[in-house]
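STRUCTURE:
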């Protein structure tokens, strides 16, 4: 959001952004690839998670009068006088209520396009947000993966489809992780826009440690 705002809206925006009690309910997160967004990340606060960057955003649609968001910068944090980690923690906690997670069954056609590497008969779901845009961050929503893992009774494999979603499948014996990683990399090179690539490798949610790590 870089356009010049009318003075009345600019004044409302300034008052809104100067008080953290106003800002906090409108915080949410997104996830992008650190290397591919290195330049913009120099200005923005984020939390490092391997090659992923969990970024923090503010929805200002209620002020502007149309869909609009602001990415939280180091300068904004200084003006608010709030610790960066606190803002990111609040954004992660707040996001499920403000940008609810959605789970969709992966259509059979997409399974066929993905090939047999993932395995027939294994349930596959797309994890994203309500808007289906920049929804990959839902995997960091507190309790979401734990709930899915409890339902399946096993660890979960997370395929970084793009910045918009992860594909989630239960981990099964005999899976060829090298083949899945190759599939991810080939899909990224052939289908996904460069700035929407999230990662070239598979992640695992470990239900015992409640952590997401690369496989």
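SEQUENCE:
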């Amino acid at each position: 959001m870089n356009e010049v705002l009318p003075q009345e809206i600019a004044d409302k925006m300034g008052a809104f952004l100067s008080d953290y009690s106003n800002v906090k309910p409108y915080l949410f997160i997104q996830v992008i690839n650190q290397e591919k967004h290195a330049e913009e990340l120099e200005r923005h606060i984020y939390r490092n998670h391997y090659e992923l960057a969990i970024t923090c955003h503010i929805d200002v649609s209620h002020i502007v009068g149309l869909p609009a968001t602001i990415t939280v910068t180091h300068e904004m944090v200084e003006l608010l006088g709030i610790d960066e980690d606190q803002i990111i923690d609040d954004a992660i906690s707040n996001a499920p209520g403000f940008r609810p997670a959605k789970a969709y069954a992966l259509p059979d056609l997409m399974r066929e396009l993905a090939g047999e590497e993932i395995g027939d008969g294994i349930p596959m779901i797309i994890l994203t947000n309500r808007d289906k845009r920049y929804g990959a961050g839902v995997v960091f929503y507190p309790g979401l993966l734990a709930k899915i893992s409890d339902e399946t009774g096993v660890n979960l494999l997370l395929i970084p489809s793009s910045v918009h979603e992860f594909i989630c499948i239960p981990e099964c014996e005999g899976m060829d992780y090298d083949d899945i990683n190759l599939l991810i990399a080939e899909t990224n090179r052939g289908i996904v826009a460069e700035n929407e690539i999230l990662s070239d490798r598979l992640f695992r949610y470990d239900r015992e440690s409640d952590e997401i790590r690369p496989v």
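REMARK: The mean pLDDT is 91.
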